[in-house]
Amino acid sequence: MISFNYETEFQLQNEPALSQWISNAIINEGFNEGEINYIFCDDAYLLDLNIQFLEHDTLTDIISFDYSLGKQVNGDVYISVERVRENADDYEVSFENEMSRVLIHGILHYCGYKDKTEADGALMREKENYYISQLD
User: 20 to 30 Å CA-CA from 67: which of 54, 107, 108, 129?
Assistant: First the structure.
């Protein structure tokens, strides 16, 4: 089950379609959907989590806590709407495109994809682009 929760004024449009899109990606990657919670927040909220749980005193667009069990994907995905908005401007893409990228990025981590090395990052970006193309 995928749920969308809001700690900010922002509200996703088209939650049912996005939920189905995320579910399809999970299945396509050979996993089963468990309980996935998206929490949309602001920079300050996410910075507090970053300091408290990861000991990083930096702004970020996403923090995901992976509770997956075997092939069942479970987790909490925190997204800073402010950071996504700024990144969209920086990368000169639409806010919707950047939000889609962040939504699927967390799921891809749960499916075993990494992004710390250049090669892993390239594969992650390729997968993100593939799934974003499925939204059109």
Answer: 129
C-alpha–C-alpha distance, residues 69 and 136, integer Å? 31
Separation CA 81–CA 2 (nearest Å): 18
Q: What share of the chain in percent tops pLDDT 90?
A: 90
Q: Is 105 among the annotated ligand-binding positions? A: yes
Read off the pTM. Answer: 0.93
- Fold assignment, 2-135: Collagenase (Catalytic Domain) (3.40.390)
Write the pLDDT tens digit of every residue in 46-56: 999 989 888 88
Write down the pLDDT at residue 123.
96
Helix 118-135 vs helix 95-110: crossing angle, to nearest 10: 120
Q: Binding residue per annotation — 56?
A: no
115 is in an annotated binding site: yes
